[in-house]
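Here is my example:
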Amino acid sequence: MQTHGRRVEGVSGTASDMLRTSEVRYNVTASESVNATTWVIPGADSYSFGTGKSSTLAAPEPRTMIYKGQFFPSKKDLKRLVGHFAMHQNFEWKVKRSNKTTLHLVCIIEDCTWKLRAVRREEGTYFQVRSFVNEHTCPLEEIHRRHR
Protein backbone atom coordinates (compact mmCIF):
# COMPACT_ATOMS: atom_id res chain seq x y z
CA MET A 1 0.00 0.00 0.00
CA GLN A 2 1.41 3.40 -0.98
CA THR A 3 1.21 6.08 1.69
CA HIS A 4 1.93 9.78 1.58
CA GLY A 5 2.47 12.03 4.55
CA ARG A 6 4.73 12.42 7.54
CA ARG A 7 5.70 9.76 10.06
CA VAL A 8 4.45 10.66 13.52
CA GLU A 9 5.91 9.02 16.64
CA GLY A 10 3.88 8.43 19.79
CA VAL A 11 0.46 8.04 18.15
CA SER A 12 -1.41 4.83 18.87
CA GLY A 13 -4.53 3.16 17.49
CA THR A 14 -5.61 0.50 15.03
CA ALA A 15 -4.92 0.27 11.34
CA SER A 16 -8.56 0.99 10.54
CA ASP A 17 -8.61 4.31 12.43
CA MET A 18 -9.35 7.35 10.33
CA LEU A 19 -9.04 11.06 11.11
CA ARG A 20 -11.87 13.07 9.60
CA THR A 21 -12.65 16.73 9.24
CA SER A 22 -15.91 18.04 7.87
CA GLU A 23 -14.63 17.92 4.30
CA VAL A 24 -11.31 16.10 4.17
CA ARG A 25 -10.56 12.48 5.04
CA TYR A 26 -7.09 11.53 6.19
CA ASN A 27 -6.45 7.80 5.95
CA VAL A 28 -4.29 6.62 8.81
CA THR A 29 -2.31 3.41 8.40
CA ALA A 30 -0.18 1.56 10.95
CA SER A 31 2.73 -0.74 10.27
CA GLU A 32 2.17 -4.50 10.34
CA SER A 33 2.57 -4.70 14.12
CA VAL A 34 -0.67 -4.34 16.13
CA ASN A 35 1.01 -2.23 18.83
CA ALA A 36 2.89 0.00 16.40
CA THR A 37 3.46 3.60 17.41
CA THR A 38 4.76 4.93 14.10
CA TRP A 39 1.99 6.11 11.79
CA VAL A 40 1.96 7.72 8.38
CA ILE A 41 -0.68 10.43 8.36
CA PRO A 42 -1.38 12.20 5.06
CA GLY A 43 -1.53 15.96 5.61
CA ALA A 44 0.29 15.71 8.95
CA ASP A 45 2.62 18.52 7.90
CA SER A 46 -0.30 20.90 8.49
CA TYR A 47 -0.76 19.87 12.13
CA SER A 48 1.16 19.91 15.39
CA PHE A 49 1.28 16.64 17.35
CA GLY A 50 1.93 16.63 21.10
CA THR A 51 4.54 14.25 22.47
CA GLY A 52 3.03 13.80 25.96
CA LYS A 53 0.46 11.23 27.08
CA SER A 54 -2.28 12.73 24.94
CA SER A 55 -1.81 13.93 21.41
CA THR A 56 -3.51 17.14 20.31
CA LEU A 57 -4.15 18.33 16.79
CA ALA A 58 -3.91 22.05 16.16
CA ALA A 59 -5.66 23.08 12.98
CA PRO A 60 -3.99 25.84 11.01
CA GLU A 61 -5.72 29.21 11.30
CA PRO A 62 -7.88 29.91 8.24
CA ARG A 63 -6.80 32.62 5.81
CA THR A 64 -8.72 35.81 6.41
CA MET A 65 -7.23 38.12 3.80
CA ILE A 66 -9.28 39.11 0.76
CA TYR A 67 -8.05 41.25 -2.13
CA LYS A 68 -9.05 42.24 -5.66
CA GLY A 69 -7.78 39.71 -8.21
CA GLN A 70 -7.70 36.82 -5.73
CA PHE A 71 -8.66 33.37 -7.11
CA PHE A 72 -10.74 30.69 -5.40
CA PRO A 73 -11.26 27.08 -6.57
CA SER A 74 -15.04 27.45 -6.19
CA LYS A 75 -17.80 29.79 -5.09
CA LYS A 76 -18.20 27.67 -1.94
CA ASP A 77 -14.53 28.25 -1.01
CA LEU A 78 -14.91 32.00 -1.54
CA LYS A 79 -18.03 32.16 0.64
CA ARG A 80 -16.28 30.15 3.36
CA LEU A 81 -13.36 32.59 3.45
CA VAL A 82 -15.72 35.59 3.52
CA GLY A 83 -17.49 33.94 6.47
CA HIS A 84 -14.17 33.68 8.39
CA PHE A 85 -13.27 37.23 7.38
CA ALA A 86 -16.63 38.60 8.60
CA MET A 87 -16.32 36.70 11.86
CA HIS A 88 -12.89 38.26 12.52
CA GLN A 89 -14.17 41.72 11.54
CA ASN A 90 -17.44 41.38 13.54
CA PHE A 91 -19.96 42.00 10.78
CA GLU A 92 -22.51 40.07 8.76
CA TRP A 93 -22.95 39.90 5.02
CA LYS A 94 -25.69 38.75 2.68
CA VAL A 95 -25.87 37.56 -0.90
CA LYS A 96 -27.19 40.29 -3.18
CA ARG A 97 -26.87 38.20 -6.33
CA SER A 98 -25.61 34.71 -7.02
CA ASN A 99 -25.75 32.52 -10.10
CA LYS A 100 -23.42 30.13 -11.92
CA THR A 101 -21.06 32.91 -13.00
CA THR A 102 -21.45 35.73 -10.46
CA LEU A 103 -21.35 36.26 -6.70
CA HIS A 104 -22.19 39.67 -5.25
CA LEU A 105 -22.05 40.08 -1.45
CA VAL A 106 -22.94 43.14 0.63
CA CYS A 107 -23.03 44.13 4.31
CA ILE A 108 -26.41 43.40 5.92
CA ILE A 109 -26.70 47.03 7.07
CA GLU A 110 -28.58 49.05 4.45
CA ASP A 111 -26.49 51.79 2.76
CA CYS A 112 -23.15 50.39 3.98
CA THR A 113 -20.45 50.51 1.31
CA TRP A 114 -18.83 47.11 2.10
CA LYS A 115 -19.19 44.81 -0.91
CA LEU A 116 -17.49 42.04 -2.80
CA ARG A 117 -18.09 40.95 -6.37
CA ALA A 118 -16.55 37.84 -7.91
CA VAL A 119 -17.01 36.15 -11.27
CA ARG A 120 -16.28 32.68 -12.56
CA ARG A 121 -13.41 32.49 -15.00
CA GLU A 122 -14.28 31.23 -18.47
CA GLU A 123 -11.36 28.78 -18.32
CA GLY A 124 -12.92 26.67 -15.56
CA THR A 125 -14.65 26.69 -12.21
CA TYR A 126 -12.34 29.23 -10.55
CA PHE A 127 -13.88 32.39 -9.11
CA GLN A 128 -11.94 35.65 -9.12
CA VAL A 129 -12.61 38.67 -6.91
CA ARG A 130 -13.25 41.52 -9.36
CA SER A 131 -14.13 44.26 -6.87
CA PHE A 132 -13.80 44.51 -3.12
CA VAL A 133 -14.69 47.54 -1.01
CA ASN A 134 -13.50 46.75 2.49
CA GLU A 135 -14.87 49.88 4.12
CA HIS A 136 -17.92 49.94 6.37
CA THR A 137 -19.96 53.14 6.53
CA CYS A 138 -22.41 51.61 9.00
CA PRO A 139 -22.09 52.41 12.73
CA LEU A 140 -19.74 50.03 14.58
CA GLU A 141 -22.25 49.47 17.38
CA GLU A 142 -24.77 48.32 14.76
CA ILE A 143 -22.24 45.87 13.31
CA HIS A 144 -21.37 44.41 16.71
CA ARG A 145 -24.97 44.28 17.95
CA ARG A 146 -26.23 42.29 14.98
CA HIS A 147 -23.22 39.98 14.57
CA ARG A 148 -24.10 36.36 15.37
